[in-house]
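To: structure subgroup
Subject: Chain for Friday's discussion

All,

I'm putting the inputs and outputs inline so they're searchable in the archive.
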Amino acid sequence: MATDSNKFQAIISHCKEYGFIFQSSEIYDGLSAVYDYGQNGSELKKNIRDYWWKSMTQMHENIVGIDAAIFMHPTTWKASGHVDNFSDPMIDNKDSQKRYRVDHLIEAHVETLPKEEGDKLLAKMDQLLAKEDFGGLKQLIEDSKIKCTVSGTSNWTDVRQFNLMFSTQLGSVSEEASEIYLRPETAQGIFVNFLNVQKTGRLRIPFGIAQVGKAFRNEIVARQFIFRMREFEQMEMQFFIRPGTQKEWYEYWKAERMKWHLSLGIPAERYRFHDHVKLAHYADAACDIEYDFPIGFKEVEGIHSRTDFDLRNHQEYSKKKMQYFDNDLDESGKPYGNYIPYVIETSIGLDRTVMMVLSQAFEEEDLSTEGKPDSRVILKFPPRIAPVKLAILPLVKKDGLPEIARELMNECKTAFRCFYEEKDAIGKRYRRQDAIGTPFCVTIDHQTKEDGTVTIRYRDSMKQERISLKAVKELVDKAIL
């Protein structure tokens, strides 16, 4: 389990320095595990969100999107199982009063061990978690001599469950208010709207409903930058299918989602599938797509075969039928008739995807030549998701060059995000654009006035060439398709 903590810290620092991600409420010393996206980070996040949305809803004729509210009737979470089952095993250190999620505590210890020894410990942990053997988990922690990072002692409480949902009050007067929950996932907004969408869209099974939105989890041990936060964003799609076909659709969506990840330009060897040892209460099959972060392989996306658990439970609790009439014919020539559909879920963390893309793109390059040290930090984003697609840089602030540059800016900015800058030497401006991941820089110089050509510089290779001023927009357009 190789990790690169130096690279991870360098990425975090880079994100702050170049306007990608800031600690929330930083002027008040911050809020733990809550982050704000800056000008470049919010653009990167939006581009990833849009790319996922297009791949789901525009490229699949049988998938539509919705935007459900964050607040939902509290019975929703009873029906979904979150009130009774949305818990994690926790353990406290008696000396420091610090609380840890058991799997995170053990995983952090594993990172200090040789690979073979660490793998054995993780396998034992997975077995105990699957059996919900809390006594065994505490014994495993004690036998492994795992210590609290604050107190340095192994004086542990018993392991117990902790519910992760945030509760709040709905109502104008606190005495009359009802307790409701901030949603811990976006999926339930899809399930309660299943019939609304199916009937108004005249959709036939198989079909999917996609949604992007905020979710909230009261993580006790939120850590590792934006990988695990208390307020985060999910991109989920629930695919409704005929009972009995879930195995083939589960495999189909595993393959489809991996294709999407590879389309980001990330090599296949940086990914792996991880099958769940302990299945969630709603699933009959589940796996994660994990990416090799600087902090090791971690989950980015989950694919779950949710059976008919959600729709059946919502039917029971709401007393409203959640059935679909299938008039396709079965093998005997009769219509399949009424049934509660089964569901295949794809659920990807948008913030984790941002962190994945940053981890893959971040490079520190040594460009030193004999007697001349030089280096650059570069973010090699795929052009389609880069925050800025084109930087337009007049060589000097006079001689009519800014006017030509502004004309190009006005031509391009309606099609994609551009950046205009006149200040500093051109080399410094190039380096700043490398640091935010801009794939193309165009320099307007005196030759532009003579023959209508510009110098275009390519981020990754630093190659420069002369092209027609009129060809710039088309070149960038093709690169970001």
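Points worth raising on Friday:
The first strand starts at residue 21 and ends at 23.
The domain at 5-70+185-358 is CATH 3.30.930.10 (BirA Bifunctional Protein; domain 2).

D.
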